[in-house]
Design goal:
The chain is built from seven helices and 19 strands. It has two domains: 2-117 and 244-311, 3-Layer(bba) Sandwich (FAD/NAD(P)-binding domain), CATH 3.50.50.60; 120-240, FAD/NAD(P)-binding domain, CATH 3.50.50. It is elongated and about 65 Å long. The chain has helices at 16-27, 62-75, 126-129, 138-141, 157-166, 186-193, 291-311; strands spanning 2-12, 33-35, 49-50, 60-61, 79-81, 87-89, 96-99, 103-112, 116-118, 134-135, 149-153, 172-176, 198-201, 204-210, 219-224, 230-234, 237-240, 244-246, 277-279. α1 packs parallel to α2, α1 (16-27) packs parallel to α7 (291-311) and α5 (157-166) runs parallel beside α6. The longest helix is centred in the last third of the chain and has 21 residues, at 291-311. Strands 1, 2, 5, 6, 7, 8 and 19 form a seven-stranded mixed β-sheet that branches. By secondary structure, it is of the alpha/beta class. The protein binds NADP nicotinamide-adenine-dinucleotide phosphate (NAP).
Length: 317
């Protein structure tokens, strides 16, 4: 394992927050090291067209946008390590030790930008059906459901987007939502409800998956959330679009979280309770959760880290 020299800034995470933090830290001559982890590029790499990132009036594909983020950070001197961080030691103050599978980095300051991951229902045999008809990413898996019948679960913007996207492949898309109204934005709801290939099952939740574990999913048993009535439905695929959980496993015993599990930072700042440790992007934001807000908070984290380093005896090298 290489034991790198002490770095001014180590960044964990490679979504809009991580790469923006890297860009700003690199342009401040801090020579940041960024671990890009298991999903380089973050959640935008599993989406199709991004229409709400400013500066792209015609829209831009998520993976293409993240490629540009990465290139821009590297152009100014970010060192990228393509491996997941396995452990972090924050207990002994700076320099913090950050270990990947082959790289051990020491960090005068640490920026956490690990984002969030798709939520699952937590039902029996869920892991057995994953990839065998069950998916949490329509943009990744829709292709496999050409002319098939699928359910999409959820009532937020993700569910609207995934259901609409799936109509390009599937013969029938049914949105299963546990309440009688959506929480998605009006424009996304209107787009969905105007799509003739989409049906909606209101007030329904999945009680269990149908099929033999380890084999293909056959459908689902639904429960009416108002009457309790149970019904069985045969479908070829089920796409979960029920939100995300912050990726805090590495840090949650060392840093405070809010009741939803998101890392806590000082109000209006990215500084955590540990001096020299900053958190930005979706891992600390359960409210906005947008690429542009994540990027903005990545910029804040780099600026805060730079100022913090300047205040330390000896500053930064
Ligand atoms: P979300 O807004 O939190 O919506 C999650 C949905 O899943 C809700 O409708 C919720 O039902 C349902 N749900 C949660 N847990 C469930 C469970 N155990 N069983 C059944 N249903 C469950 O999450 P999101 O749609 O992923 O959106 C997250 C953020 O990203 C939002 O701020 C959204 O605006 C943004 N986003 C934007 C775009 C875009 O603009 N293009 C696209 C995607 C996401 P209830 O409504 O009953 O709580």
């Amino acid at each position: 394992m290489s034991d790198a020299a002490v770095r001014n800034v180590v960044i964990v995470g490679a979504g809009p927050a991580g790469f923006t933090a890297a860009l700003y830290a690199a342009r401040a001559n801090l020579r940041p090291l960024l671990f890009e982890g298991p999903q380089p590029g973050g959640q935008l790499t599993i989406t199709t067209e991004v229409e709400n990132y400013p500066g792209f009036p015609e829209g831009v594909m998520g993976p293409e946008l993240m490629k540009k983020f990465r290139e821009q950070a590297v152009r100014f001197g970010t060192d990228v390590v393509s491996e997941a961080v396995l452990s972090v030691d924050l207990a002994h103050g700076a320099p913090f030790r950050v270990s990947g599978s082959s790289v051990l980095a020491q960090a005068r300051s640490l920026i956490i930008a690990t984002g969030a991951s798709a939520r699952l229902l937590g039902l029996a045999d869920e892991d057995q059906f994953m990839g065998r008809g069950l998916s949490a990413c329509a943009t990744c898996d829709a292709f496999f459901f050409r002319n098939k019948r699928v359910f999409v679960v959820g009532g937020g913007d993700s569910a609207m987007e995934e259901a609409n996207f799936l109509t390009k492949f599937a013969s029938e898309v049914t949105l299963v939502h546990r309440r009688s109204s959506f929480r998605a934005s009006k424009i996304m709801q209107d787009r969905l409800l105007a799509n003739p290939k989409v049906k909606v099952l209101w007030n329904q939740e999945i009680e269990s998956y149908l099929g033999e574990p380890g084999k293909r999913l056959r459908g689902a048993r639904l429960r009416d959330t108002t009457t309790g009535a149970i019904s069985e439905h045969t479908v070829d695929g089920i796409f979960l679009a029920i939100g995300h959980d912050p990726n805090t496993n590495l840090f949650k015993t060392m840093l405070a979280t809010d009741p939803k599990g998101y890392l806590l930072t000082k109000p209006g700042r990215t500084a955590t309770e540990i001096p020299g440790v900053f958190a930005c992007g979706d891992v600390q934001d359960s409210y906005y959760r947008q690429a542009v807000t994540a990027a903005g908070s990545g910029c804040m984290a780099a600026i805060e880290a730079e100022r913090w380093l300047d205040e330390q005896p000896g500053g930064h090298d």
